[in-house]
Amino acid sequence: MRIRSLGVIDDAVVELSPGFTAVTGETGAGKTMVVTSLGLLLGGRADPALVRIGAKAAVVEGRVVMRPDAPAAVRAEEAGAELDDGALLISRTVSAEGRSRAHVGGRSVPVGLLGELADDLVAVHGQTDQQGLLRPARQRQALDRYAGDAVAVPLEKYASAYRRLRAVAVELEEITTRARERAQEADLLRFGLDEIAAVEPVAGEDAELAAEAERLGHAEALASAAQAAHAALAGNPEDPEAIDANMLVAGAHRALESVRSHDPALGALAERIGELGILLADVAGELAGYADDLDADPLRLAAVEERRAALTQLTRKYGTEGTVDAVLEWAEQGAARLLELDGDDERITELTAERDGLRSELSVLAQTLTDARVEAATRFASAVTAELASLAMPHARVTIDIRQTDDPEGVDVDGRPVAYGPSGADEVELLLAPHPGAQPRPIAKGASGGELSRVMLAVEVVFAGTDPVPTYLFDEVDAGVGGKAAVEIGRRLAKLARTAQVVVVTHLPQVAAFADRQLLVEKTNDGSVTRSGVTVLEGEDRIRELSRMLAGHEDSVSARAHAEELLAAARADG
């Protein structure tokens, strides 16, 4: 991980061990910035105050090695990212103005994607992160994860039934609480459908009636025009001497007919003039028929206008496009909606029966979940209690309280009211009795700071076999602990590192001695941490740092001897 312009860090590279990495340094040297940097890579809040004074932006870049089929790799590829030789490159930039950008696998992505990837990559534990696990909801999730398929399988069935129950309940409530509004809607629909049925409109009828009204309204002018056109084409019987189009065309045809044999071109023109004469005769005949058939009945015109007025009244009320077709479409939709509204009583009966059936199903599934959680809680509590005995809390006892809250939402198999939630009817709470005779209390109230840190560590060690997260980060989770308990914490962290990558920011030499790799964070004279300010400690350098952590300075003979003893004991234990 490379860190630039973040807090006291100017430019530094942090190389983490595959096993157990301890990050040490004097107070204020910038150890916490390592945790902050990882938090930014995991989608944490971008605070412009983190940007180093004088810099335009803080940049954190990380290289995460993972299998191509790992959940985080699959999710990153779905977002368009690519793995580089089995590693995913992640970067986060925070400007001094507060703007934030994220890149994954060479692709710019929303910052929210980093948070999604973090769920499958790193479990962060610090004083603030512990507070999250103190919440009963988080404790239930942790227990479910520990229980495995015994809870996961029925929980999936329960969740599906629960979602359906919520949907049924919402629909049932809507139907029953809006009964009056739905009845009014049904009355309006019936009125409209009756009004449309009384008129009996036909598709396209309004356009046909409009054309007929136009024709009837101008019948005399149309008849006069048709008669005049007929006279021009075929002649006027009352004026035998008048010249008409048929007569002129016939004369032209006779003139060419007498000489057509002398030139084929002229013959072709003669034929065309003959065809013209035939066409004129046809048109003249149709004009005569049009004039004879034209209906100028004022009664028919009145009937058409009356029908058009009735249709116009419908289109204004029900035709959004002002047409009869739109009215018919409204009627079709209204009839379907009315059928739905009229079926409310039947639907209420169906929904009520389905709701009751789902409640019974949920009751059985919830009991299955409770039984599985109780069994897992017994095993889990015993395992954590055993771990605490190794962490200098030999008399501490951990139990898990699983209880149900009363609520009229549903009824369980014994007829008791029970609250159905998305994850069942159980509330899970981790209880701690730190010494014999003490009443078990919620760990938030029953444990001191140091005890709480050890409880959290014990929980993670127990979870190690079932937790899919490959990396754990502990930020001074050993605060308030010393002596033998510190040695046991180091031993447990080393045990956890056998199955996962563990990164610990610590001030305890007893913990750091168990690390596979120890990193030292130190400032330069100007108060910044440069690239050379994060170094891997080996041999003599590591002994000097452990001596400083033990006695406050590197050259203490007794501290050096103790440091060498710690390292030897840690290696022997491993």
Automatic annotation (TrEMBL):
The keyword Methyltransferase does not apply. It holds the Pfam family SMC_N. Coiled coil: none annotated. The keyword ATP-binding applies. Keywords: ATP-binding, DNA damage, DNA repair, Nucleotide-binding. It comes from the Bacteria. Residues 12-527 form the RecF/RecN/SMC N-terminal domain. InterPro entries: DNA_recomb/repair_RecN, P-loop_NTPase, RecF/RecN/SMC_N. Belongs to the RecN family. May be involved in recombinational repair of damaged DNA. This is DNA repair protein RecN.
